[in-house]
Amino acid sequence: MATVDQSHTGALPPEVALVGTKNKSGSLQRQQRIWGWIFLSPWLIGFVIFTAAPIIASFIFTFTRFNLGDGSVTFVGLDNWKMLFSDPLTLTSLGVTFKFALIAIPFWLIVPILVASLLNSKSVKGKPLLRTLFYLPYIVPAVSAIFIWQSVMNTQAGWINRILRLLGVQDPPAWLQNESWILVAFMIIGLWGIGNAMLTTLATMQGVPTELYEAAEVDGAGPITKWRKITLPMISPVVFYNLVLLSIGVMNYFVVPYIVSRGTGQPGQSTYFFNMHLYKTAFAYGNMGYGATLAWLIFAICLLITIVLFATSRRWVYYSSGD
Amino acid sequence: MKSKALLFVIVALFSVLAFPALAQDGPTEITWFVGLGTGTDTAQLEVQQNVVDAFNASQSDIHVTLNIAPSFETAWDTFATLVAAGTPPDIVGPIGVGGSHRAEWLDIGPYIEELGIDLSVFDPSLVALYETANQGYSGLPLLVYPSVTYYNRDLFDEAGLNYPPAEFGAPYVWPDGTETPWDYNTLIEVAKVLTVDASGNDATSADLDTANIVQYGLNFQWARIRLIWTDLQPENTYYDAATNTVSMPDSWREASHWLQDAIWTHHVMPNRAAAVSEALGAGSDNIFQTGKLGMAITPLWYTCCIGNSVGNFEWDIAPVPASLDGEQHVAADADTFRIPASTQNPDAAAQFLYYLATVGIEQLAPAYGGMPALPDFADSYFEAKDAAYPWGVNWQVVIDSLEHTNSGSQHHESWLPNWSQVYDREFAFQTEVEGDTGADVDVDASLDQLIIDVQSIVDQPAS
Fold first, then answer.
1. Which chain A residue's Cα is nearest to B428?
2. Is residue B214 part of a domain?
3. Are residues B139 and B158 in the same domain?
4. Per-residue model confidence (pLDDT) at position A6
5. Could you tell me which chain A residue has the CA closest to the CA of B277?
6. Would you say residue B35 lies in a domain?
7. pLDDT tens digits along A195-212
8. Within a domain: B12
């Protein structure tokens, strides 16, 4: 068999040609990478300056006595971390926050599911209107909503107590002045924010395959059994999602108690939430070092709660993909 | 050529930005920060600007610029940001005694001597408010607001009661002619007659419907608990600086029980829920102005906020009742101007402070609502007040009150470490007693816990 001397054909050996292609494509990729970084740079610069740097700075602050009053910064080692255990307000505010979490999270988790189930029911008329009405409060600015609720819950003139009096309750609660009732009042105020959770739950419910319900009906399952055995497991991922967001949200609960108590945590210390303690320490008392330490503590608590929730999710969250 | 010109411009710009002192040629620029107390109302802004303009026109070495905080609520944040950024204002005020515990201030002692300020023209108790631990001064007495008893003449007339005494030491005269000392026991008894329910029963009657009280006898208008304690009995044993320990004086325990009884046993003072009800000011907590409160014990600055009384009811002022020890003591608020310790221009700031204290104050005092600490300016202050409240208020009570003011560690805003945190913790106790469950509060146990918490706060490193 005759052989051809390829050196005379003008064509490059395959390995050489490949090297050239690689060089070209490598150069192109490098150029694309550079342009990619350039286009990303506004966000990256913003992230570094406004997010990453403050996070790092706040961690450094935890080892300092940084006084906003006179701008002085002194290195104090672990003093701020030790103070977490001796500061009575840290324990008080954590107690208030966890107490509220126990009251509010189940309520704020269950009510959107019930409302979504209602709106998913075939027998309910005017669903689009109801969906809009339930979602509407979510778009009202929080501060406006809180002022409205303060009037609604006024002991003498608020319409909740007027209705209670009409129903025969002689001495309705002073919702916002009573240590026993104020957290319940906050929980009720929080119902205005269920619109988003309700909508995501409803969307998930509407995505449940109808053949599952049809098969269950063939097997003789009633509405409650279908809801318990099919709907609830199928929406469990979104319930889990809402639970994680709620847990983090309650740990960072601030705006409502701050406005209602005008930043005092009154009555008594019943609304002195952890974030109020953090805010006051850093910005009202000017103790930025200890304030940063409190911020890292609540971050650690949120992280721990989230890890625990994810660890337990395998037992009760249904993922159709098996993940 | 162009690039050389550009380079020159850049270098020149850099020089100006990097070395402002080199670029500065003219008067020393100083900033007056307003907002940590009164001073942010529109009418006050105009008066302050007039004072600044007059000062700037009176000399050429110093130029003052006003920096007004957007609101009182955000003023501390703004001030702290300016200090932390290394651009502190040079003079701050008006600011009260308590508010001043939140920052570091310049000792103006050396300037008092240098500028020839004669402290003897002021009441010594007012000067003492500004004495620092190292024998210096952190401010000059400028505006003073003694506590007085405001009373609604119309409600007293309606109840058939005589007015409270017009001068210190005089007794209260009941309608039948009997006389009792004007003290906190008498105050409760008078307040009972002035407290009325929807059916017209007063608090001396067993038929008083406590759920439907439409008019109250007494309130400590906008007063925090340490002011109330001090009204009932000034003490200097709450905080011992030598040992850094906190303890609850027995008289303050008694005062706390008195407060709880006034609200929940005698029902002569509104609780929190009533105080923010529609009927009593709709959340403003300005109960006396509604005309449904017989008496309010509060400092003189409250004249700022009863403009709605004009045309609706007439009020007057009486001395505060004698304290638990039977002596006359008056808790007084006071405002001044202060120089931040971190100022870059202490000399210029001190000169402007002197101008404010001796010249500007004549215009500023009526605008701020405080009585000038300099007696020379008191007349013009009361003339302005008479114009606002023309039915003839007994202002002599204010002047006489100055002889009885609490000073030093007896002052209701006297210093202790981490003052703001302590102030908030004390307020938590107050809201416990005034809140809806206040009747059930074990006052002694709450005070014991308060002392434990306050001790823990003062033990923390100063913030």
1. A268
2. yes
3. no
4. 46
5. A156
6. yes
7. 889 999 999 999 999 999
8. no
Segment B149-177 mean pLDDT: 97
Q: Are residues A57 and A84 in the same domain?
A: no
Please check whether residues A134 and A244 belong to one and the same domain: yes
**Cβ pair B368, B143 in contact under 8 A:** yes
Q: What phi and psi, each to the nearest 5 degrees, are found at residue A69?
A: -60, -40
Spell out which residues of chain B touch residue A68, defining contact as CB-CB under 8 Å: 80-81, 83-84
In this structure, is residue A28 part of a structural domain? yes
Least confident range of A313-317, B122-126, B156-160, B312-316:
B122-126
Q: Are residues A130 and A30 in the same domain?
A: no
pLDDT of res. A228? 92
Average pLDDT over residues A284-291: 90
In the predicted structure, residue B128 carries a pLDDT above the cut 80: no
B428 and A265: CB-CB below 8 Å? yes
Contact A268 B428 (CB under 8 A): yes
Mutate to test the interface with A, among B436, B441, B443, B460 (most CBs of A within 10 A): B436
A23 has pLDDT over 80? no
Range list of H helices, chain A: 14-47, 53-61, 79-86, 88-120, 127-135, 142-152, 159-166, 182-190, 195-206, 210-218, 223-226, 232-251, 255-260, 274-279, 288-316
Tell whether the model's pLDDT for residue B2 goes beyond 60: no
Structure ipTM over 0.90, yes or no: no
At B135, the pLDDT band (50, 70, 90 cuts) reads low
Expressed as residue numbers, the domain containing B93 is 22-144+333-388
Q: Which residues contact A135 (CB under 8 A, 6 or more apart)?
A: A195, A196, A198, A199
For residue B200, being part of any structural domain is answered with yes
**Residue B182 and residue B307 share a domain:** yes
Ordered alpha helix ranges (H), A171-282: 182-190, 195-206, 210-218, 223-226, 232-251, 255-260, 274-279
Of B88, B276, B460, nearest to A83 by CB-CB distance is B460
Which of A153, A156, A178 is closest to A271 using CA atoms?
A178
Cα B243 to Cα A172: distance, rounded to the nearest angstrom: 48
Does the pLDDT of residue B417 top 80, yes or no? yes
Interchain contact, A174 vs B436, CB within 8 Å: yes
Which of A78, A143, A179 to mutate to test binding with chain B, by most B CBs within 10 Å of its CB?
A: A179
Question: B282-310, pLDDT tens digit by residue?
Answer: 666 789 999 999 999 999 988 888 888 88
CATH code of the domain covering residue A117: 1.10.3720.10
Q: Is A241 on the interface with B (CB under 8 A)?
A: no
Residue B370's pLDDT is 83
